């Protein structure tokens, strides 16, 4: 077919009928030839290197062996059922073991035939073996694709394999595709960039990523394609940022007024940390540019984000605007309100609280005062975004613990004024820098990376189940000193019933160990009606109960400075960022606080790493980096909905340098050519026109 190109539907590729096209679409979202070519190998086998069985050892990441399959047998029953093969070369024999797809393998593997196998050697009972090796019939006559020395490996699925689309099958398709479109492939980056960064040209990179002749060529292709991918993501993000600044006029706060100064000079009970000062300065600068501010403040739990928010709101009020602050739960909103009121005193400004349980009468007053402009600051929950809530002149919006709110909710606040208010989004979930640059690349980011002076770092200790009596003893000690204790149980959706049983069993045990009337226990979990939950929470906040047994509902923001012990049950089942959030519930007062991680004796490697990381450090950013390395970007909170992370080849945990290079390159380009109207940037302008993206607040979540 003469006019085959990257956008040709996949069914028109030679060797792909309607059926194969169908599975390719369903299983791999491959719709066009271009999609296929962007389905890159995830690994390569070095075909030049063969090992003899005698040379294998368990430290090898992978090894290729030529030998003969001499026997194949099923072993074990039910759960331990497996398929065991004996594989032999002139130096020895080893076992090959499969635990899955047994019947399929039994049918397709040929006993007696020569195979080239690839897998990770491991040591079992003193013998070398491989589990789930890749098996390829050895065929000395077969001409290897372009004399490949590096063999691409594509991930495949059972379904794909049924249509002969195993790694070999996919490789054949890639070859056909490249043969049909190679001559029409065109460079996607401006020539000056290709030259400056010494990048492999696009057509060559596409060929080499699928069929590299050697490692050098492969590395060149990888670098080129990763750079390109990250470059275009940054191009879109920074273009969006540029458009937003142009599109949305913002209120100009051009003075620091009386309320701000009075508060700062006479009410603020502590000196601000340098980090707090820096962020306030950044906000002051942003709100005085005439453009609308969209700023994300990241600060570890306890870093003092609230006071930064308050001072920013005062700035707005001083300039004649109203401000509001939205928190994800009623408890949090109430705490913020009480805390801020206490800090402010009664005379600086008019501040009120609006939540689901605000009385109708109070609500009427609030609505009235909002509309006539006598209410300066409103704190609340989702209730703030109801259409009935109308401001006279809203100029500044704070959103606390942003990951709990959806896009739509933020957009509603945004629309509460003809000129959108400045937005300050605060999060206590630190995000690694690389991720932030990609996820929030079109927002401004401030970081509060310093805790107020004099905080005692929380001591974190790992205990196993058989040390529980010690833990109880420690709890009694702390309670005797007048402190309070949290005990948190995991509650993970799939096993909710089981988890609830655990929690109830744990509670019974506790009630025996800590009997009434000396001890009082609160219990809070997600299945309780909101009212009961709030009631129990309040009892603990007021100090009426000494022990709070809870599921993760207490994770966000709750402030009980008198609580000094956080016990996390089955700690190995929590994610790192969750553990860190939970630990942040203590260490809020002057006393030494403790976090006790309880776990069983048997831990997975990852579970152990998580617990060890928690014991080692209190630094949220360090924890976030480990989290990213363990789980990959797709699982970090808040990233799931974001399309920017559907990367085909770049990897945020490994490609930090390329990311920085790509971002800086884009920044430079926009500096020199803000409208991309120079001829040399035409390709970039075309790209943006084809990949039109909307307003950026949809990325704030
Ligand atoms: P978070 O960043 O987790 O929201 P908060 O704003 O709730 O933290 O602050 C935690 C505690 O630290 C509050 O009791 C607050 O009053 C106090 N705090 C904030 N800034 C300072 C500071 N600069 N010096 C001392 N204490 C501070
Ligand atoms: Mg907070």
TrEMBL record:
Q: Does the keyword Ubl conjugation apply?
A: no
Read off the InterPro entries from this record.
Answer: ATP-dep_DNA_helicase_RecG (IPR004609), DEAD/DEAH_box_helicase_dom (IPR011545), Helicase_ATP-bd (IPR014001), Helicase_C-like (IPR001650), NA-bd_OB-fold (IPR012340), P-loop_NTPase (IPR027417), RecG/Mfd (IPR047112), RecG_dom3_C (IPR045562)
The identity of this protein, by name, is ATP-dependent DNA helicase RecG
Output the NCBIfam families linked to this UniProt entry.
PRK10917.1-3, PRK10917.2-2, recG
Q: Which residues form the Helicase ATP-binding domain?
A: 286-448
Q: Which Gene3D superfamilies did the record assign? A: Nucleic acid-binding proteins, P-loop containing nucleotide triphosphate hydrolases
The record's section on PANTHER family has: ATP-DEPENDENT DNA HELICASE HOMOLOG RECG, CHLOROPLASTIC
Its EC number is: 5.6.2.4
MF terms (GO), sorted A to Z: helicase activity
């Amino acid at each position: 077919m003469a006019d085959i190109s990257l956008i040709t539907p996949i069914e028109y590729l030679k060797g792909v009928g309607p059926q194969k096209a169908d599975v390719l679409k369903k299983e791999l979202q491959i719709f066009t030839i271009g999609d296929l070519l962007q389905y890159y190998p995830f690994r390569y086998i070095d075909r030049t290197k063969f090992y003899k069985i005698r040379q294998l050892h368990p430290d090898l990441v992978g090894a290729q062996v030529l030998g003969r399959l001499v026997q194949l047998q099923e072993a074990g029953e039910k759960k331990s059922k497996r398929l065991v093969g004996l594989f032999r070369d002139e130096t020895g024999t080893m076992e090959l073991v499969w635990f899955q797809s047994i019947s399929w393998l039994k049918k397709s593997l040929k006993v007696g035939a020569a195979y080239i196998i690839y897998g990770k050697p491991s040591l079992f009972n003193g013998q070398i073996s491989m589990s789930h090796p890749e098996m390829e019939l050895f065929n000395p006559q077969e001409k290897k694709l372009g004399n490949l020395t590096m063999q691409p490996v594509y991930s495949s699925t059972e379904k794909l394999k049924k249509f002969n689309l195993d790694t070999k099958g996919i490789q054949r398709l890639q070859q056909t595709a490249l043969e049909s479109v190679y001559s029409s492939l065109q460079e996607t980056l401006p020539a000056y960039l290709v030259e400056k960064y010494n990048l492999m040209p696009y057509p060559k990179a596409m060929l080499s990523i699928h069929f590299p002749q050697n490692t050098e060529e492969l590395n060149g292709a990888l670098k080129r394609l990763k750079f390109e991918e990250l470059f275009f993501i940054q191009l879109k993000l920074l273009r969006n940022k540029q458009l937003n600044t142009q599109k949305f006029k913002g209120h100009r706060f051009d003075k620091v007024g009386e309320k701000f100064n009075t508060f700062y000079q006479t009410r603020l009970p502590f000196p601000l940390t340098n980090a707090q000062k820096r962020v306030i300065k950044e906000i002051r600068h942003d709100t005085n540019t005439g453009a609308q501010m969209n700023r994300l403040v990241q600060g570890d739990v306890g870093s003092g984000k609230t006071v930064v928010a308050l001072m920013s709101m005062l700035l707005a009020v001083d300039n004649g605007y109203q401000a509001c602050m939205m928190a994800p739960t009623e408890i949090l909103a109430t705490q913020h309100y009480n805390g801020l009121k206490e800090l402010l005193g009664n005379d600086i400004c008019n501040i009120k609280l609006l939540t689901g349980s605000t009385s109708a009468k109070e609500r009427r007053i609030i609505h009235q005062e909002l509309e006539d402009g006598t209410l300066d600051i409103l704190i609340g929950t989702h209730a703030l975004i109801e259409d009935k809530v109308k401001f006279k002149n809203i100029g500044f919006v704070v959103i606390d613990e942003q990951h709990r709110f959806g896009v739509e909710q933020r957009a509603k606040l945004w629309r509460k004024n003809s000129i959108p208010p400045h937005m300050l989004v605060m999060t206590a979930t630190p995000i690694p820098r690389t991720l932030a640059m990609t996820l929030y690349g079109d927002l401004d980011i401030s970081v509060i990376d310093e805790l107020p002076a004099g905080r005692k770092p929380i001591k974190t200790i790992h205990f196993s189940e058989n040390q529980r009596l010690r833990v109880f003893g420690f709890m009694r000690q702390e309670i005797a000193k007048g402190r309070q204790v949290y005990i948190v149980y995991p509650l993970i959706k799939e096993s909710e019933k089981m988890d609830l049983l655990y929690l109830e069993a744990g509670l019974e045990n506790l009630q025996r160990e800590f009997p009434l009337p000396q001890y009082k226990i609160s219990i809070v979990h997600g299945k309780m009606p909101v009212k009961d939950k709030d009631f129990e929470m309040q009892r603990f906040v007021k100090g009426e109960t000494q022990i709070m047994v809870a599921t993760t509902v207490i994770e966000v923001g709750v402030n009980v400075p008198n609580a000094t012990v956080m016990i996390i049950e089955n700690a190995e089942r929590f994610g790192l960022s969750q553990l860190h959030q939970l630990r942040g519930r203590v260490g809020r007062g002057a006393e030494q606080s403790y976090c006790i991680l309880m776990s069983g004796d048997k831990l997975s490697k990852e579970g152990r790493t998580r617990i060890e990381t928690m014991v080692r450090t209190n630094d949220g950013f360090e924890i976030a980096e480990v989290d990213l390395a363990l789980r990959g970007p797709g699982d970090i909170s808040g990233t799931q909905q974001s399309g920017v992370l559907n990367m085909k080849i770049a990897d945020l945990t490994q490609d930090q340098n390329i990311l920085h290079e790509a971002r800086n390159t884009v920044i430079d380009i926009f500096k020199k050519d803000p409208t991309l109207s120079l001829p040399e940037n035409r390709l970039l302008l075309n790209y943006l026109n084809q990949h039109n993206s909307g307003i950026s607040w949809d990325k704030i979540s």
